[in-house]
Design a protein that fits this description.
It is built from 15 helices and twelve strands. The protein is of the alpha/beta class.
Length: about 450
């Protein structure tokens, strides 16, 4: 039996309305103690209008939505109280609920109960946080496809394929005397591995692109002092975020900003000019720049001349293993231009070539924006691990390992497939996921 939990479901600020959420097997019994209408005979979702009372004291006049389990978000009897949005009022309602038998919910506990009551799987549950944190329409769309179960449908072919091969192998092991049963031979297991590795690789590729749309990317601007990094940042942001002067070392700390480029959030980091410096403060800024550079998904290496000196070459050496774009700023200063180079002028706000190149490097198609994808870090990690397991099974099969060993390996891999949606009942992982949710979700 799940005890009744209570939490504020809206932001804890003064507003026109607030929503207090309760859920639990004895939810109606608890709420009935402090609500003016009788909830004990509720058999379906019902709306009430009445008073919240603490014994004889009226706390607020509210609209109350009663959801009869299992037809609720959590699968349990649930109540949502829509009160006036004064913190004094909604905190008092929560206090009265606790006084009458409820307890304060922990972060993610409502969603956790929904998962435990099979109202959603782990992919859907994780999408709740993604939806809350979405910063673009495109990100919201990716998260909504996961929440509605479309992303989970991508796992169905894997589950069927694994189930089919495991059934075939096990019937061969258990009933070897039946010659009319289809044989789980080398070719069938090899084809099973090849087909699923290919399918998983496609899921990973699309998932990584979906993650770019969902989470955005980190882009660091690096270069010597005074090549125009701060001017480029300001031009991209369309505001004077970073201080621009002729003095070398003006940027002492990482200056951040973000833009929406073709539906992808680009988190920009203008770094201190990377060079040898005797200035203690500037040296701290340079170290921060290097840290931010290591974290970046894409690096914009900025020059203001075609004649690269040692500092420029050192920076190029530093980013050689990172995805990067070479940007030649102050385009009006170049007498001759190489068609293979990317020229811009931040001062004249001529930065479209840079925007176009960033979009090109993202490698996104229309399908990536409109189709579901497994775009969560945990889920992509499982897919990578699953691919490695299948590669090993393929090799073991080619080396003619006994079929019962192959069967055991495929079964272990199948549990990985089920862990994507939480069907393996790994509640330790589920608890870790839900602990990151805000209270009320």
């Amino acid at each position: 039996m799940f005890e009744t939990i209570v939490a504020l479901a809206t932001a804890p600020i003064k507003s026109a309305l607030a929503i207090i959420r309760l859920s639990g097997d004895d939810c109606f019994f608890v709420v009935d103690k402090f609500f003016s209408k009788d909830l004990n005979n509720v058999t379906k979702s019902t709306i009430f209008h009445g008073l919240i009372k603490d014994e004889d004291e009226i706390i607020d006049e509210v609209v109350l939505l009663a959801y009869k389990g299992p037809h609720s978000f959590t699968g349990e009897d649930s109540v949502e109280i829509i009160s006036h949005g004064s913190p004094l009022i909604f905190n008092k309602i929560i206090e009265v609920a606790v006084k009458n038998g409820a307890r304060l919910a922990q972060g993610g506990e409502f969603s956790s109960r929904s998962y435990m009551n099979n109202k959603m799987d782990l992919i859907q549950a994780e999408s709740i946080n993604d939806l809350i944190n979405a910063e673009s329409e495109e990100s919201k769309k990716i998260s909504m496809m996961a929440l509605t179960g479309k992303t989970s449908e991508l796992i169905a072919p894997l589950k069927k394929s694994f189930g089919d091969i495991l059934s075939l192998i096990e019937v061969n092991i258990d009933y070897p005397e039946y010659t009319d049963i289809e044989e789980a031979n080398f070719e069938k297991i090899n084809d099973f591995c090849i087909d699923n590795i290919k399918y998983i690789e496609n899921l990973i590729e699309n998932g990584n692109k979906g993650r770019i749309i969902k989470d955005g990317i980190k882009v660091a601007l690096v270069g010597k002092p005074n090549v125009g990094k701060s001017s480029i940042l300001n031009a991209l942001l369309q505001e004077d975020k970073a201080i621009v002067t002729n003095v070398k070392g003006t940027t002492r700390d990482v200056v951040e900003g973000k833009i929406n480029l073709n539906g992808v959030i680009i988190n920009l980091y203008d770094t201190a000019g990377i060079r040898e410096s005797n200035d203690v403060v500037e040296e701290i800024g340079i170290k921060k720049s290097i840290n931010k550079l290591n974290e970046a998904d894409l690096v914009l290496v900025v020059f203001d001349s075609l004649n690269l000196d040692e500092e420029d070459k050192n920076i190029l050496e530093f980013v050689k293993n990172k995805e990067h774009i070479l940007v030649y700023n102050k385009s009006d200063l170049y007498k001759e231009k190489d068609d293979n180079n990317l020229y811009i002028s931040a001062l004249q706000n001529d930065i479209n070539p840079l925007k176009e190149e960033i979009i090109k490097r993202l490698g996104l198609s229309k399908n990536n924006y409109s189709n579901p994808s497994i775009a969560n870090t945990r889920e992509l990690g499982i897919l990578e691990n699953l691919k490695e397991q299948l590669l090993k099974i393929k090799i073991d099969n080619q080396n003619n390992l006994p079929v019962d060993i192959i069967n055991s390996e495929i079964h272990d891999a199948y549990l990985k497939v089920l862990s994507l949606t939480g069907e393996d009942n790994d509640f330790d992982i589920a608890a870790e996921i839900f602990s990151r949710f805000c209270v009320g979700k």
